[in-house]
Design brief:
The chain is of the alpha+beta class. Helix content is 26%, strand content 25%. It has 2 domains: 71 residues, 434 Repressor (Amino-terminal Domain) (Orthogonal Bundle), CATH 1.10.260; 149 residues, Umud Fragment, subunit A, CATH 2.10.109.10. It is globular, with a radius of gyration of 18 Å. About 6% of the residues have low confidence.
Length: 236
């Protein structure tokens, strides 16, 4: 209903909104009918098109932290994760017991350690974040936090934001149009997996338009190491 309301506010047909978003008109129709949800990339586009009172809703779907949304749109009622950060010294045995319904997610010191949560050792961990379990329902041992470096995902992700990655979701066919973490020669990148990607041609796309797409033709191994389920940080 929110997408249909936005479309009506903008005075657009389903076809015209689809053209602005770079999708087919049937996709807009399916969103309005509640049969499918937009990808994170499309939520970002919808937020840019929407007036402030509606942009809050779409930003919330993207996982932006509460302080960021409220600082830009003070009347927001979007429900977002309340995240607490703990150093490795602060996270003692029993911390999880005191934080009922919270899941411990290790935040990695170095992106190069981002392959799999079960392969991480203590030296790889910079800190922990405690996240409400409804946002990370698969529990401890599935997710890691990775620091964002640079501005290639601006304005959604700023430098030093933390993205939380679900390492059980790695199949490119099911992640097209979503934000993913990918392991490439330069290290770990957080990008949109372009909808036109194929198993033999992975296309990683920045949010910031000054950056070119990264094309991975016939990769020897699947470079996708996980699906970004939400992110946290404070924009300056």
């Amino acid at each position: 209903m929110r997408i249909k309301k936005l479309r009506k506010t903008l005075g657009l047909t389903q076809y015209a909104l689809a053209e602005k978003l770079g999708v087919l008109s049937w996709a807009v129709a399916s969103w309005e009918q509640g049969r499918f949800q937009p990808s994170g990339e499309n939520y970002a586009h919808l937020a840019r098109l929407a007036p402030p009172e509606e942009a809050r809703f779409f930003l919330g779907k993207l996982g932006l932290d509460r302080d960021t949304v409220l600082s830009k749109w003070p009347e927001s009622t979007v429900q977002l994760p309340e995240v607490r950060i703990y150093t490795t010294e602060q996270w003692k045995p029993g911390t999880e017991d005191r934080l009922r319904f919270q899941v411990q997610v290790p935040v990695l010191r170095d992106e190069a350690a981002a392959g799999s949560p079960r392969e991480i050792n203590e030296r790889d961990i910079d800190s922990f974040i405690a996240v409400p379990s409804k946002f990370v329902p698969k529990g401890t041992g599935v997710y890691t936090g990775i620091y964002i470096r640079g501005d290639s995902m601006e304005p959604i992700l700023s430098d030093r934001f933390i993205v939380v990655v679900d390492h059980t979701q790695r199949d490119p066919a099911g992640l097209r149009g979503r934000m993913v973490a990918a392991l490439v020669q330069e290290g770990v990148l957080v990008k949109w997996l372009a909808r036109e990607s194929r198993l033999d041609r992975i296309i990683l796309r920045s949010q910031n338009p000054i950056y070119d797409d990264i094309l991975l033709d016939s990769p020897e191994t699947n470079p996708i190491i996980g699906d970004v389920v939400f992110w946290w940080g404070t924009q300056g």
